[in-house]
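Okay, can you check this protein?
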Amino acid sequence: MDESKATASRQRPSSTDLEPAAHQRQLRAYVQTPEYKAASREITVAVVLMKVHDAALLRSARTLLARRADGKRPPLRLPKPHLLPGGRIPDWWMSTINASYAGIWRAIPAPGPELRLGGPNDPLVQEVAKQARLLQASRAGYQGRDSLYEAYQPDGTHGGGEPVPPIPGLNPETSRRANLALGRGSGIRIQPSRLEEAGQLHTDYFAVWDRSRAYAAAVLALLRART
């Protein structure tokens, strides 16, 4: 992925000694070139493959830790990345991986097994538990993102306006979901009272990939120390 980004960066028109308008014209022309489209697809492919491998890494780390905590031998085969045979990377497959997040949400472990390999004050145990909690926060961010939004009537200012009135006979949360599902109002926004929460959920949601690698590293460090 880094190599693909570096190639795209080298091909991208430079703003040095160019007026902003001229630079924008060059950029608009550049994004229509075969070179840009090829570099863009290479980056997209690299990102998707990273997600697939990170999800497999997390499943493997969870499996190894659970079996060791139960006093069992490592499995003969660890979870593998879910790749198409022949190394094919069609657009529909990439869309499926992006939509499902490569199954990473099902692979997120709960804290606990590491405590059977050391005391709660053991730094290695604490690190595994910490990374597991962070992964749980990422899943909460993923699951809670839809609860942030509401249907509203814009008033012409940025994000301003009033939420659509609740539906009589429904509790506030059911009414909020029904208003969105029915397409009431002429806009959708994050509820103003939950903007700070939305920022944290967004951060947790997209941090899942970094956290999956950190969890795997913490698990391996713990297991190596117990061999």
Summary: The chain is about 60% helix and 5% strand.
